[in-house]
Amino acid sequence: MREDVDAAVARDPAAASRTDLVLNSPGLHAIWSHRLAHKLWLRPHLKPVARSLSTATRAVTGVEIHPGATIGRRFFIDHGMGVVIGETAEVGDDVMLYHGVTLGGRTLAKVKRHPTVGDRVTIGAGARILGPVEIGDDVQIGANSVVVKDVPSGAVATGIPATVRFPTHPGDDPYEALFNSPAIFI
User: Fold this and answer.
1) Which phi and psi angles does 62 have, rounded to 5°?
2) 150 domain-assigned
3) Which SUPFAM superfamilies match (predicted)?
4) Over 50: is that where the pLDDT of 174 sits?
5) What's the sign of the alpha-carbon dihedral 172, 143, 3, 21?
């Protein structure tokens, strides 16, 4: 929990204090509830309890994370409302999502059908990452982008469908490169 709060403090310039975040961040509340629901999900006889907990959490926070999803350390959801993370999604460490992000599936088959997101990834508001795609480490995905293909490490993906590009100069920060495209604000 401490790591999650530290991540929120580092990524939320509006955070008034650690106490404010602990008491008032729906993203943190959803993450903490998910961590418990996921532990319950791993025990077959407790899966109904895990689903009930995730449903209650969705009602309270507006964030829907299936208890089967695997979430890494220091995960942060800013604002939270409308985030959906599917059952077979895998999210790495130090990932940040903004509101309205979907890590969704494209099939009804009982297979790996949701994205795998690497470490240190930022996904902008309203972005949709659909299907069993791989999002590499240090990727930036622009607001409202629709990603249906793999995105290699260090890339920036923007648009509908998302176009993948890399920072123009070696050593450029991919996060800063994200702002070089007006498509992220549409």
Assistant:
1) 80, 10
2) yes
3) Trimeric LpxA-like enzymes
4) yes
5) positive
Active site residue 99: yes
Q: How confident is the model over 18-41, as pLDDT tens digits?
A: 888 888 889 999 999 999 999 999
pLDDT value for 186: 41
List the CATH number of the domain containing 40.
Answer: 2.160.10.10
Q: What is the pLDDT of residue 71?
A: 97
Specify whether the CB–CB gap between 61 and 26 falls below 8 A. Answer: yes
Q: Flag whether 54 is in a domain.
A: yes
Residue 41 one-letter amino acid: W
Instruction: For residue 170, tell me if it sits in a domain.
Output: yes
The total number of structural domains in the chain stands at: 1
Beta strands across the sheet bearing 84-85:
64-65, 84-85, 102-104, 128-130, 146-147
User: Collapsing DSSP states into helix, strand and coil, what is residue 147?
Assistant: strand
d(Cα 140, Cα 147) in Å, to the nearest integer?
Answer: 12
Encode pLDDT of 124-134 as tens digits: 999 999 999 99
**Residue 10 pLDDT class (50, 70, 90 cuts):** confident
Is residue 91 predicted with pLDDT exceeding 70?
Answer: yes
H/E element holding 164?
strand 163-165
Judge whether 185 lies within some domain: no
Its domain, for residue 20, covers 1-180
